[in-house]
Specification:
Oligomer: heterodimer
Structural class of chain A: mainly alpha
Shape of chain A: globular
Largest interface: A-B, 21 and 23 residues
Order of helices and strands of chain A: HEHHEEHHH
Strand content of chain B: under 5%
CATH class of one domain in chain A: Mainly Alpha
Structural class of chain B: mainly alpha
């Protein structure tokens, strides 16, 4: 049985970021950079959301030579519904600010492949 | 796959280093007034008798770690070590993501470290904690039962018989079975490691009050029934039970999860069904 628990601001930020991409896929590292969160924060959130059915996951089909296919994520219909059902106050919290050094890299959620 | 020569040397060095530490400990324990003055033959026998599981576990840990921590640089090796033996998609997902990061080595290491923590925490499912709770309760009950039986009987002390032997055997079997069932050394380590924690808590929870009880009612130590030269207080009895559990118990239990997990993984591998990425 899944406990109904108020999601953390970081979880809401990940859900928001994925919702902003609509049906496009995102990478874990791009989410980290865009949200200014560490991998140790983002991946547990992605794992938990996927286990609860709020994320769809797949593997990259077109892969650059010499590296393995990356794992891709996007919000499932259940995830979108979950995000809509969250109390408005919870979703209005301040977004984590990307670290300046990372922001200069130019990568963003919008840069993830479709 | 056999370990390369460098790994073999590191493994031998780790084993020798562990035996060296044991030699110093034995020498001090056997010497007068805590000095290094014990006969060499006694030190060698004591070192080999008490230290061989630790030395063997150190060798196995180095070899298994080297086999698992495969990668082009330190971040990849770190993440491979943390996520090795994992059968779900997340370990592969994090490794693939790391492979795509071309930022600075520091950024790669930062990402790998975060993923490594995630991978290690993810390994602790429900079953290791069930094993830990079961082991802890069983050893607490065993400690109390033997303590009370001896207290009302020979009063010869019982803690020694509980903490030296049964836990090692339990940890070996838990590690072996878990590695066999989980098809990886990692599964054995997780379950036997949890059992180690459970046994320590269980024995301490029972031995501390029992040690105080033995001091009050019999004036002797719970460990072996010895009487001190001066009257024994309940507090001293409790402290002796706790320190004995650590020095004669916990220290000697440490290598057995590794030995059990390695044995289970090796047996499984010999049957050709061990998963590819396991150590």
């Amino acid at each position: 049985m899944t406990r109904a628990r108020r999601p953390s601001p970081q979880t809401i930020a990940v859900l928001d970021a994925l919702a902003a991409k609509a049906s496009d896929w995102s990478h874990g590292y791009d989410l980290c950079r865009a949200l200014g969160l560490k991998a140790g924060t983002v991946y547990p959130i992605l794992i938990r959301l996927a286990e609860r059915g709020f994320l769809e996951t797949t593997w990259e089909q077109e892969v650059a030579q010499g590296r393995p296919p990356r794992h891709l994520y996007r919000l499932s219909p259940a995830g979108a519904e979950h995000l809509r059902s969250l109390p408005r106050a919870a979703t209005l919290g301040p977004r984590p600010t990307p670290r300046p050094r990372l922001a200069q890299g130019g990568a963003s959620i919008a840069g993830a492949p479709a | 796959m056999s370990a390369n020569r460098g790994t073999a040397w590191v493994a031998v060095g780790a084993g020798a280093g562990v035996l060296g530490v044991w030699a110093v400990v034995i020498s001090v324990a056997l010497g007068n007034d805590g000095t290094l003055g014990a006969p060499v033959s006694e030190v060698v026998v004591g070192t080999l008798f008490f230290g061989w599981p630790h030395a063997l576990a150190a060798v196995i840990a180095v070899v298994a770690g080297a086999r698992t921590a495969v990668g082009a640089d330190a971040p990849e090796r770190l993440l491979a070590l943390a996520a090795g033996g994992r059968r779900d998609e997340w370990g592969a997902a994090m490794r693939a993501e790391l492979a795509s990061i071309t930022a600075s080595p520091r950024e790669r290491l930062r990402f790998a470290a975060g993923c490594a923590v995630t991978a290690l925490r993810r390994g602790w499912g429900r079953s290791p904690w069930i094993v830990a709770a079961t082991s802890g309760m069983a050893f607490a009950a065993l400690t109390v039962a033997l303590s009370r039986a001896s207290l009302h009987g020979s009063r010869s002390g019982t803690l020694w018989g509980v903490i030296y032997g049964p836990p090692q055997l339990t940890l070996l079997l838990v590690g072996l079975v878990a590695a066999w069932v989980g098809c990886s050394m990692r599964a054995g380590l997780e379950h036997a490691g949890a059992a180690l924690i459970g046994i320590l808590i269980g024995v301490l929870a029972a031995a501390i009050p029992e040690g105080a009880l033995w001091a009050r009612e019999a004036g002797v130590f719970l460990l072996d029934g010895d009487a001190p030269s001066t009257p024994l207080t309940a507090g001293q009895g409790a402290v002796d039970a706790a320190t004995s559990t650590f020095t004669w118990g916990f220290v000697h239990w440490l290598p057995w999860p590794v030995l059990g997990a390695a044995a289970g993984a090796r047996l499984r591998r010999q049957f050709g069904v061990l998963q590819r990425s396991s150590p």
